[in-house]
Amino acid sequence: MTRRFYDRLAADYHRIYADWQSSVRRQGEALHRLLGGHPRRVLDCACGIGTQAVGLAALGHSVIGTDLSPGALARVPDLPVAAADMRALPFPDATFDAVVCADNSLPHLLTAEDMGRALTEMHRVLGKAGRLILSTRDYDEARRTHPTATPPSVHEAAEGRTITFQLWHWHTDGERYDVELCQVFPDLTTTVHTTTYWAITRAELQSLVNAAGFSDPTWHEPEESGFFQPILTAKT
């Protein structure tokens, strides 16, 4: 389901953002600061169309991107990429200085077992003093309030506006939810893409990060980091 969601969305993924190029630059700068402000060997293990990876590469990092979606990878400009599941990364041990898994990608894994496998793989491919950077939605708040939709975002382009919003349908467990991502295009045609997430709390995620062998897990709020979601960093 996840691969199909992103393969179908790939051609219009940039329209989620008001200005994709500005988002690339802004997110890259925020992650660059968290990486200490100097170039590193970075794996973006859920790179999509390259929003974070391209921003980091522009700041001098040596970036490789992986993603489940070949359709999304086909849109990543000027970076080495490979189709791969984050639960089975195709790299030797200790290949990277940092692993980035941003933009709420990890919660596509719906069980603690699968998420633990992915985090263990991220730990394996990191070298000594490696750095993990994860970002998710604020799921502590979402688990408390169970929202049913997101505010619309508007992408402005010469051909007109594209409006993107999400409808959320919570499972009976109160932890997982199905998403309908809706895009209304300038000609008023509409597409709907569906996928599922686990609204994992910070404590739950931090516990899995620790169990995978990481240390010093630290949360960074958007107002502190300049990134649009809460970020969890940890060290090998």
Automatic annotation (TrEMBL):
Signal peptide positions on this chain: none
A single MF term (Gene Ontology): S-adenosylmethionine-dependent methyltransferase activity
SUPFAM superfamilies: S-adenosyl-L-methionine-dependent methyltransferases (SSF53335)
Residue ranges of domain Methyltransferase type in the record: 43-134
Pfam families from the UniProt entry: Methyltransf_11
PANTHER family, A to Z: METHYLTRANSFERASE
Protein's name in the database: Methyltransferase type 11 domain-containing protein
